[in-house]
Amino acid sequence: MPIEITKEHARDMKNSLFTNKARESYDAEAKKMISQKIVLAKILKKCVPELENYSAQYIMENILVDKIVPSEVFLDQDVSPMIEGRNTEDASVSEGYVRFDLVFDIQLPGPGKVVRIVVNIEIQKNTKRYSFKRSVYYIARLVSRQKGIIFLKDNYTNLAKVYSIWIVTHPTKPNRNTIDVAEFNRKRIVGKSRKATRNSDLLKVIVISLGDYTETNDELLRFLDIIFSPDIEPEDKFTMLVSEFGIKISESFKEGIEIMYEYVDAFARDRAQTIIARLEEKIKSLTDERKSMADQIKIKDDEIKSRDDERKIWADERKSLTDEITMLRNKLKEAGGIKNI
């Protein structure tokens, strides 16, 4: 028997499809936002120890310079260059596909041998989408895929260090405004201890959990909190970012912030309408339940009143019978017919 689709079902399906499409669009804009050079520079300065002594401006101009996407208006100072990640889809015959949000290589400054680092940045809305095991799997794939790209055959000495950075925009309350690091370290458990070698920290997972910018003094957390906050309007964000961090707001940066805010605002309205509809349904249910209870109470009251009336009738009949008996006794006594009645 075919399923009948009502107008209400069709509307709900349409709203659901619209919401899913909007969320996909928001995710795409969020990925573009973390591709902005100023955002990447601040993330790298905080999360890559080899770059902690360099300014974000230096990282933008000297570390990320080779990854700028060519633009038709490249010379326009309002064009904010973004990082061009290398193929972000990792295909393996035996392991299937893994799609990364952003993967790119950086070369550390300085003389001597070129030191190459692979950086992966993922952005997730909540901890349901992020899990530590998932980040371990991602970083493992980023290591294995280097063969044939960064080094050939068995030349493992050229294996590059990998940083996998996860940004969680809406974490659980205990995790808000925190940065966690999990790294691969070499440790000697038998024999004389030795200093860590430069190859002992090849793998590192960093989890940046955002929150309210007013509840942290960490520069990177405040920076990202402001950018991804659903409660701060775009113009206020621009003012705060310029005054506190001294960054130049490019047209692409501005557009990304505004688009994300529009989607968040749409989600908020949609959620508010859903909550209001549920509350109205709950109120109607409670009203109906209250009316039903009132009706039951009235029925009980009517039953009690009916029983009270019956008791009154019985009481009146009893009194009437008692009066008749008393009257008969009195008559018999007066007639002297029966004693001691």
How would you summarize the topology of this molecule?
Layout lengths: L6 H29 L1 H11 L8 H8 L25 E4 L3 E4 L2 E6 L8 E9 L7 H13 L16 E8 L9 E6 L19 E7 L9 H10 L5 H12 L5 H85 L6
Parallel strand pairs: 4-5, 5-7
Antiparallel strand pairs: 1-2, 3-4, 6-7
Helix pairs in contact: 1-7, 2-3
Salient structural properties:
single chain, alpha/beta, 5-stranded mixed sheet, 7 helices, disordered N terminus
Task: Describe the overall structure.
The chain is an alpha/beta fold and 341 residues long. Helix content is 49%, strand content 13%. The strands form two sheets. A five-stranded mixed sheet has the order 3-4-5-7-6. Strands 1-2 form a two-stranded antiparallel sheet. Strand 4 (116-124), helix 4 and strand 5 form a beta-alpha-beta unit.
Helix content: 40-55%
| Structural Rg | 38 Å
Number of helices: 7
Structural domain tally = 1
What are the segments in which pLDDT stays under 50 over at least 5 consecutive residues? 1-7, 9-18, 67-81, 91-96
% residues in beta strands: 5-15%
**What is the H/E order?**
HHHEEEEHEEEHHH
**Sheet with the most strands, sense and barrel status:** 5 strands, mixed
Shape: elongated
**Gap from first CA to last CA:** 86 Å
> What structural class do helix, strand and pairing data support?
alpha/beta
The total count of strands amounts to 7
Strand order of the largest sheet: 3-4-5-7-6
Query: Quick check: average pLDDT?
Result: 78
